Amino acid sequence: MKIILLAIGKTDAGYFVEAINEYQKRLEHYIPFEIQIIPDIKNTKSLTMEQQKEKEGELILKNIQPGDYLVLLDDKGKEYTSMQFATYIEKKTHTVSKRLIFAIGGPYGFSEAVYQKANEKLTLSRMTFSHQMVRLIFVEQLYRAMTILNNEPYHHE
Q1: Is 6 annotated as a binding residue?
Q2: Is 105 annotated as a binding residue?
Q3: Domain total for the chain?
Q4: Could you list the residue range(s) of the whole structural domain that residue 8 is in?
């Protein structure tokens, strides 16, 4: 199984890029992991919020293959502690045969078509974070889950 973080728009702040790259490098030791970036949609000023969500949704769905398990990182999703998330990842490694995809939507969230395609929704917090922060928080939590599953001292109770 491979884990993919699918996100719209690049991360421009160097300090986020550096931190995300560090955790991505650490994850190589544990599990196949990749971040796939969908380029930002151009000329969004002429689009309504719904039109932008629809266009982003089409791009997200183009990246989903048969057999993929799609989890939306969404504020209405299920919330886990770090220990529960580690257990969740462990279960998925046994039940997802191909790719486990975690998707971060655009600034207005996901289109209805993406919600329909998704297998489930997960939230990292009830608080709102910038998309760049969500990427960092997700890769750090995935790394933390891997260290928990391997009984390594990174996570403290």
Answers
A1: no
A2: yes
A3: 1
A4: 2-150
Residue 156 lies in a domain: no
User: What CATH number is associated with residue 63?
Assistant: 3.40.1280.10
DSSP one-letter string for 24-76:
HHHHTTTS-EEEEEEPPPS-GGGS-HHHHHHHHHHHHHHT--TT-EEEEEEEE
* pTM of this prediction exceeds 0.90: yes
126 is in an annotated binding site: yes
pLDDT tens over the chain, length 157 residues? 999 999 998 888 999 999 999 999 999 999 999 999 999 888 778 889 999 999 999 999 999 999 999 999 999 999 999 999 999 999 999 999 999 999 999 889 999 999 999 999 999 999 989 889 999 999 999 999 999 999 999 888 7
